[in-house]
Amino acid sequence: MASVASPVIFKEFCPLYYLLNAIPTKIQKGFRSIVVYLTALDTNGDYIAVGSSIGMLYLYCRHLNQMKKYNFEGRCESITFVKLLSCFDDLVAVGTASGRVAVFQLVSSLPGRNKQLRRFDVAGIHKSSITALAWSPNGMKLFSGDDRGKIVYSALDLDQGICNSSLVLEEPSSIVQLDYNQKVLLVSTLQRTLLFYTEEKSVNQVGTQPRK
């Protein structure tokens, strides 16, 4: 018996003017006018996260049609990567051009969820541009990679407000992609792809030939 084909749904794609209009194209800093470039993007069912060249994270809530802004204290530097996660709490990880990584635990109106914005910092390990971020499904682990090949593991305790970070792997070329599932971290660099087993601290390369 032939299977019944699922119906085809047509969708129209158009610029998100309601989102873009909420982000300034320029800012004034002293006597200078600085152009704002959009540098990083991630989305899920609840939020659209946009990083910018001025160090500002723009977070659009799809349910409330509201835009919120988050930034790093100190110097203004470009955001290079953002990664959202919806688990028991809504989290967003942000990486910058100088290697700073921060996690924002977002406020939720739902019962039993987080009622105060909190921020966790991955301190002092990365020294160059963040190129990849990956969450564990429960939000207790964050992996960050940079363009010098360093991969850092951060263990987050949201209840205690603690973030402990350590260097777990160092590759000779830039990290281009990270993905984590079931105690295995998939790592892609400019030269190779590998599986890093976080419990055994062992590496299994995918394929034998280096990338050209």
UniProtKB/TrEMBL annotation:
Source organism, top-level taxon: Eukaryota
InterPro entries: WD40/YVTN_repeat-like_dom_sf (IPR015943), WD40_repeat_dom_sf (IPR036322), WD40_rpt (IPR001680)
Gene Ontology CC terms, in alphabetical order: cytoplasm
One Pfam entry name: WD40
Gene3D superfamilies: YVTN repeat-like/Quinoprotein amine dehydrogenase
BP GO terms, sorted: protein exit from endoplasmic reticulum
Protein name per UniProt: TCPR2 protein
Gene designation: Tecpr2
